[in-house]
Write a structure and sequence with these properties.
Elements lengths: L8 E8 L2 E13 L3 E7 L6 E2 L4 E2 L4 E7 L4 E7 L5 E9 L3 E3 L2 E14 L5 E4 L1 H7 L1 H4 L1 H20 L1 H6 L12
Parallel strand pairs: 1-10
Antiparallel strand pairs: 1-2, 2-3, 3-6, 4-5, 6-7, 7-8, 8-10, 9-10, 10-11
Length: 175
């Protein structure tokens, strides 16, 4: 669980229901031993329109993962730097092994628009259908608590505070 030095490329592996959903390279921005921040272009070769936001080739995601929290927060920007918003995944705490960042997606998500006016809970039906509550009730409870916590932070302006860090450790990567 030790911190990794910046300027290293990691492989982010997103697992869902025991299967690898996607794997992509990302540049390590910061690792303080608890939170790992990486930056990567939108990994799909095509546009994904969610209705409330479009992820497009050229978009850049700054992704924040925690070793002690049940979520990840992904800041989404256009290639030109315009903030689209934050896509938050409910996950088990992240594991970093060598240069692989292992992320287990638990289906629940939250979208927060750039202006903070839109805060949307997503995929609660998928979460119910996943059967996690029956297989691992403690994990299901932690996932719901994490979604509630993120929604509260988003609605009270705490999301920006959560993502702030001492930028003196990695100049030029202020969040």
């Amino acid at each position: 669980m030790s911190a990794v030095s910046p300027e290293k490329t990691l492989s982010v592996t997103l697992v869902k229901a025991g299967l690898t959903k996607i794997r992509y390279p990302a540049d390590l921005v910061h690792d303080d031993g608890t939170r790992v921040t990486v930056r990567a272009p939108w990994a799909a070769p095509h546009t994904r329109d969610f209705g409330f936001v479009r992820f497009e080739p050229g978009d850049v995601l700054t992704e924040h993962y925690w070793r002690d929290r049940w979520f990840a927060v992904k800041e989404v920007r256009t290639g030109g730097g315009e903030l689209k918003g934050w896509y938050c995944d409910i996950t088990r705490p992240v594991v970093l092994r060598d240069s692989e960042l292992l992320v287990e997606d638990l289906d629940l998500d939250l979208w927060v628009s750039a202006d903070g006016a839109s805060v949307l809970r997503l995929d609660e039906d998928e979460f119910q259908e996943s059967g996690l509550a029956g297989r691992d009730p403690a994990a299901a409870e932690a996932a719901v608590r994490a979604l509630d916590e993120l929604e509260h932070l988003a609605r009270t302006g705490g999301l920006a505070k959560l993502l702030r860090r001492d930028t003196s450790a990695t100049p030029g990567t202020a969040l």
